[in-house]
């Protein structure tokens, strides 16, 4: 792990999997993809989940929006035609999302990419940016929001639509090696994140710093996988298409519960978890 921002991006600026990687078999990312993730903090898998899962989730997303739960979140700026919608824990109420967690290749991909012997599912997170949405996603580390300790944590962010690089996620290459955990920030520029941990520094403005930024054009079914400490952001959606994606988060062997203040992650804290103990419970089930 690095000792500061200036030295974090030390990997050679070459061979970054510019076109992504294709899994070598169902649930098998291949060693080249694993090595890219470990080097860069993020990797793109082309078509890793299979078209059948894209089709199933495509139908379920409208149901998820209609059944938006108490933790759903909408950012709509005055005078704009679009909006940014998020919700989580769809797997608890919609069969297609539950089937995705337990039966799709996602869990096997996560376990292999983390080089883990076991795997727990954390939560699912639906993101919809309608056309004409200026709302951006600020630079952040997912780990800052979550009550966890450990390194074997990843997200699998799967495109449900064609997503051009210009409106897709952006990553700071090598930022998973930063030794600092930064403050959780609100995705709504008009508000502050509740229960901010003030002794953490604010995230840097990587757009004004000399770090290599990675991004890709994506097709439906392509998946971005990154570590929980990898810095990422996203622009607004000024194109003519929706930008829908499903993110799922996964824990490996070394992850334990960290009892930070409520309000810094998904609302559910699971059942009977204790500081420094394992994450396995009904809400965060072991799946492998």
TrEMBL record:
<dbReference type="GO" id="GO:0016706">
    <property type="term" value="F:2-oxoglutarate-dependent dioxygenase activity"/>
</dbReference>
<dbReference type="InterPro" id="IPR008775">
    <property type="entry name" value="Phytyl_CoA_dOase-like"/>
</dbReference>
<dbReference type="Pfam" id="PF05721">
    <property type="entry name" value="PhyH"/>
</dbReference>
<feature type="region of interest" description="Disordered">
    <location>
        <begin position="1"/>
        <end position="22"/>
    </location>
</feature>
<dbReference type="GO" id="GO:0005506">
    <property type="term" value="F:iron ion binding"/>
</dbReference>
<protein>
    <recommendedName>
        <fullName>Phytanoyl-CoA dioxygenase</fullName>
    </recommendedName>
</protein>
């Amino acid at each position: 792990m690095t000792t500061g921002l200036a030295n974090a991006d030390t990997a050679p600026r070459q061979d970054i999997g510019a076109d992504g990687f294709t899994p070598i078999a169902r649930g098998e990312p291949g060693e080249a993809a694993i090595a890219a993730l470990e080097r860069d903090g993020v990797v793109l898998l082309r078509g890793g989940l299979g078209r059948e899962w894209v089709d199933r989730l495509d139908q379920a997303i409208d149901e998820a929006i209609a059944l938006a739960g108490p933790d759903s979140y909408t950012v709509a700026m005055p005078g704009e035609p679009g909006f940014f919608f998020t919700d989580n824990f769809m797997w608890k109420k919609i069969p297609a999302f539950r089937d995705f967690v337990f039966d799709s290749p996602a869990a096997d991909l996560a376990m292999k990419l983390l080089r883990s012997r076991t795997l727990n599912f954390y939560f699912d997170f639906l993101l919809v940016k309608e056309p004409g949405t200026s709302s951006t996603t600020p630079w952040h580390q997912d780990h800052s929001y979550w009550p966890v300790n450990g390194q074997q944590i990843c997200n699998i962010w799967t495109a449900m639509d064609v997503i051009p690089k210009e409106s897709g996620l952006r990553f700071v290459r090598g930022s998973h090696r930063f030794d600092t955990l930064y403050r959780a920030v609100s995705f709504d520029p008009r508000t502050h994140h509740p229960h901010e941990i003030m002794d953490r520094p604010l995230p840097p403005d990587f757009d004004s710093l000399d770090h290599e930024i990675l991004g890709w054009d994506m097709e439906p079914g392509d998946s971005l996988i990154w570590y929980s400490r990898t810095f990422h952001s996203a622009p607004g959606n000024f194109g003519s298409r929706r930008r829908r994606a499903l993110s799922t988060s996964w824990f490996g062997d070394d992850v334990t519960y960290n009892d930070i203040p409520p309000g810094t992650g998904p609302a559910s804290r699971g059942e009977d978890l204790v500081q420094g103990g394992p994450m396995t419970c009904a809400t965060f089930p072991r799946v492998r």
